Amino acid sequence: MDQNMKAFVIGVMGALITFSAYSQTIVSTTSCITIGFLVLMFGLLVREGFIYI
């Protein structure tokens, strides 16, 4: 899998975490949105080449 596809998959996971903030009860809504945002930012760093996985 190339770098762009890895970043896309990470971004989709971050979006799913963010969108699930109001439908789950495990963590608070604010925490879930924050975690999703951090995962999205990690995907951006992978896409830009600052982090290689």
Automatic annotation (TrEMBL):
It comes from the Eukaryota. Keywords: Membrane, Transmembrane, Transmembrane helix. The keyword Transmembrane applies. The keyword Membrane applies. The chain crosses the membrane at residues 33-52. This is Uncharacterized protein. It comes from Stephania cephalantha.
